[in-house]
Amino acid sequence: MKKRYLISPGPTPVPEEVLLEMAKPIMHHRTTQFSSIFAECAEGLKKLFKTSQPVITLASSGTGAMESAITNIFKPGDTVLVVNGGKFGERWGKIAQSYGLKVEWINVEWGQAVAVDAVEEALKKNRGISAVLTQGSETSTTVAHPVKEIAALTAGADTLTIVDGITSVGVVDMPMDQWGIDVLVTGSQKALMLPPGLAMISLSEKAWAKSQSCDIPHFYFDLAKERDNLAKDTTAYTPAVSLMIGLRQVLRMLFEEGLDNVYKRHDTLARAVRSGTAAMGLKPLAPLSPANSATGVYTPESVDGAKLVKDLRENYGVTFAGGQDHLKGKIVRIAHLGYFDSFDVIVALSALDMALAGQGHTMQMGRGVAAAQEILSERY
Ligand SMILES: *Cc1c(COP(=O)(O)O)cnc(C)c1O
User: Fold this and answer.
1) The pTM is what?
2) Mutate which of 12, 70, 164 to test ligand 1's pocket (most atoms within 8 Å of Cβ)?
3) How far apart are the first and last CA of the chain?
4) Does 249 contact ligand 1 (Cβ within 6 A)?
5) Cα 134 from Cα 114, distance rounded (Å)
6) Structural domains in the chain plus CATH codes
7) What is the pLDDT of residues 155-209, one digit of tens each?
8) How far is the CA of 377 from the centre of ligand 1 (A)?
């Protein structure tokens, strides 16, 4: 027998209360019964996004909402500024390019956050930029980008700030309206503690206004159509009924804990993992602007990172994420977002410690766990 632990930054574990809700018999979506669930989700998502605008839920993975942000707002030939500091930044640019937008890249070294000055300069140099596209947290490098500062640069101008908050919403406070974020996107399988399959998106008034001149064909991801249906507590097409029922439960759990406590929990877990991995002598991938969603660390020179991740999954039953592209085999990423608490962090650090020792990396075991315990004690 082997007990399995999921310590990857998506999909993340789903709480039992949510699994049980989703296991109930399927209901029809054109009913008052489903509409009331849908309405509760819509209200809850507005509270989570901290916006007065509708939050639209799509049946797709997170990338679907990213794509819909492009296809519902822009015209071919529009120029967007893309913060590219990892796989997901690159994805924004690729989506934009595939619909004929011109992309100006701000290339950021992997493991670093974009400099606000660099965004400001690029916006000054090219007055024709329609939008800045960024991640809140670049999951591939475990970096947090300065969203508040970027949004402040475009507030009051014609330019939009479009944020992929897929590993930020529900992890850190990212008040959409207060910060002047024009488009905020998230997905179900990260901080929202659900299986993959839902994506959420909200547009500011400024973004809705720009969407009026949109000239990119779209059919399934038609945000104005979904907004109009949402106003009637329904959807244009069949919603992911069971996932929506799960989402209602998740939102209830988040509000019961209190959003501030949710953010505090993520912050404590993140600090515990940073401190624990540092005590183990592991170099952080994102030392200066680490995300609270996941922590990437370099594996020791003598250790093959890809083999380590495989060993952890197959022999210890613990699934971590490795690195992508040039970081493949060089890092491990430890998630701490969503349905994570203190002892998930202990499991992660302890397993990592044992697997490293198993690969011949000698050090005194338990140092990482001890350092993490110091910080986790804050919670009790
Ligand atoms: C996971 C993730 C995505 C992609 O989501 P999918 O659900 O796989 O489409 C996009 N951006 C970030 C930052 C993510 O972490």
Assistant:
1) 0.98
2) 164
3) 32
4) no
5) 9
6) 16-256 (3.40.640.10), 258-379 (3.90.1150.10)
7) 989 999 999 999 999 999 999 999 999 999 999 999 999 999 999 999 999 999 9
8) 32
